[in-house]
Specification:
This protein has about 210 residues and is an all-alpha fold. It is built from ten helices and no strands.
Length: about 210
């Protein structure tokens, strides 16, 4: 029997419900049956849209990754001022977008994109694109005289990503004695400060 035609609206509703349950209980402890009960529909309706729970997870992550990628592409292609300021904006905006989606639990799909080595490998194109966008801005910054041409390369792009990795999940609090989870206000403040330090550091390298 042919598979019934899928319903885009139903697929969206399923992903929204799954995101909520994954955030609340974790991916592993959430079942297809849990999602169907949450929506008040039969499991069969979910299987009309997604073959497995993993497929739902992958679609959620892919949608989020594409959103971040689109934001980066738009800012890079429409950069009219300082490329380094654009780079700073991209990093801070991306970090806050992640935090807004994972603040309840780092085991949300968006959190797993940054904490699961398996998913990082699966979404390799997302990370490659991120490096490419940063490398392009570094080359633009060199052309604008903001940094030396000798550091306008992918190796520096990787160094930048490593330097700002603490503003992404899992938000390890290795810098104070506090055990409290970082707040949005503190993360935004520190993200601004960290990226400023990194950008200023790039200017001094020869």
């Amino acid at each position: 029997m042919a598979r019934t035609k899928s319903n885009p609206n139903r697929a969206d509703l399923i992903m929204e419900a799954a995101m909520e349950l994954f955030s609340r209980y974790g991916y592993e402890r959430t079942s297809i049956e849990d999602i169907s009960k949450h929506l008040g529909i039969g499991k069969g309706s979910i299987y009309l849209e997604f073959r497995t729970k993993e497929e739902i997870l992958m679609q959620i992550i892919e949608r989020f990754a594409m959103c971040i990628q689109s934001m980066m592409d738009e800012k890079v292609e429409n950069c009219e001022g300082s490329p380094l300021e654009t780079l700073k904006t991209i990093i801070v905006t991306g970090a806050m977008a992640v935090y807004d989606r994972v603040s309840r639990d780092i085991h949300t799909p968006e959190g797993l994109l940054h904490t699961s080595m398996t998913l990082k490998a699966r979404f390799r194109p997302f990370y490659v694109r991120k490096r490419e966008r940063i490398t392009k801005l570094l080359r633009m910054a060199a052309k604008a005289g903001e940094i030396s041409e000798s550091i306008a390369n992918e190796d520096t792009a990787i160094n930048v990503l490593m330097a700002v990795s603490s503003i992404y999940p899992p938000y390890y609090n290795n810098y104070t004695e506090s055990e409290q989870r970082i707040t949005r206000e503190e993360l935004e403040r520190r993200a601004e400060q960290i990226t400023t330090i990194v950008m200023e550091g790039l200017k001094t390298q020869k």
